[in-house]
Specification:
Helix content: 25-40%
Shape: globular
Radius of gyration: 19 Å
CATH topology of the largest domain: Rossmann fold
Order of helices and strands: EHEEHEHEHEEHEEEHEEHEEHH
CATH architecture of the largest domain: 3-Layer(aba) Sandwich
Number of helices: 9
Structural class: alpha/beta
Low-confidence stretches: none
Length: 303
């Protein structure tokens, strides 16, 4: 029988790609989000429902007949403390409460690398760590993780937390370092950057979707936190220069933008657990992933 999957935040970057993959697998897909998708990001075969998951009463109208739930929902403007906490933490709790007593196969919480806070790279998963974070977003995500892990311990709730590092690829909004750089390079602009010495882990979207699908089908991952990244740290400066090299234009001016006081200089994971537990690792190297992403943005009309 066809699987039924609920994707909250299904109209976002990762949600769009996950929806496409699930439809291709022949699953019944329902997307919950606070906004309906743009025409260019509407996936045929997906049922879109506009709802705010921070409002528990609204969720009572939603069917609970699902095999899988993937929570990608959350307010994108992380500078708004209240909305960030409400959407990423209270929204998560509301969603989980719908399925606590239902026999679902899997609930995936999409976590974040910033949950590790001050823990040095490469970060290793540890449920017992009393982490502190640098941001409202990190705090909300960490609170969600702790809440869901307790649900698993007390009620065997089939949850897995996937802590994603920097995901990139086609259809990403122009508010992240790779799309911003591609845009400036394609327009052959001079653009200001930091010194670019921060170390980050970039993972191509197709590999991330593959990790999610593998997790949905893996009962041994219940109650676990799993890092999802390429496992290869790279300087932001090198990524920017590589994009300009591949495009053949663009003039980054490094050192013009000061780093934020709370910016983490080194953020990359250990991915041993993903390899062992999920039999997963990223297959798309950075150069190939950038080429595919650039190809997509070449046809975008930038304002």
């Amino acid at each position: 029988m066809s699987k039924k999957i609920l994707i909250t935040g299904g109209t976002g970057f990762i949600g769009y790609h996950l929806s496409k993959k699930c439809v291709k697998l022949g699953w019944n897909v329902v997307s919950l989000s606070s906004k309906l998708p743009k025409l260019s990001k509407t996936v045929k075969g997906v049922k879109y429902i506009k709802v705010d998951i921070t409002q528990k009463n609204n969720l009572s109208k939603i069917s609970r007949d699902f095999d899988y739930i993937v929570n990608l929902a959350g307010y994108v403007n992380h500078s708004d403390k209240i909305k960030t906490l409400e959407s990423h933490y209270f929204g998560c709790k509301n969603l989980a409460s719908l399925f606590i007593d239902k026999k679902i196969h899997k609930f995936i919480q999409i976590g974040s690398s910033v949950e590790y806070g001050k823990i040095s790279s490469p970060q290793r998963e540890n449920k017992k760590n009393p982490q502190s974070t640098f941001s409202y977003y990190g705090k909300a995500k960490l609170q969600s993780t702790k809440y869901l892990i307790k649900l698993h311990e007390k009620k065997k709730f089939p949850v897995t937390i996937l802590r994603l590092y920097l995901v990139y690829g086609p259809y990403q909004d122009i508010n992240r370092v790779i799309p911003i750089t591609i845009k400036n390079a394609l327009l052959n602009k001079k653009f200001d950057c930091s010194d670019g010495l921060q170390l980050r882990d970039f993972t191509f979207i197709d590999d991330v979707i593959n990790a999610i699908i593998k997790t949905l089908r893996n009962n041994k991952s219940n109650g676990e936190i799993i890092n999802i990244g390429s496992g290869k740290a790279v300087k932001i400066k090198d990524v920017i220069n590589e994009i300009c090299h591949l495009v053949g234009s663009g003039q980054p001016i490094f050192g013009k933008i000061k780093m934020r006081k709370d910016e983490i200089k080194s953020l990359y994971p250990k991915i041993t657990k993903a390899k062992k537990l999920l039999n997963w690792q990223a297959k798309t190297n950075l150069r190939l992933g950038l080429k595919r992403t650039i190809k997509y943005f070449e046809y975008e009309k930038f304002s």
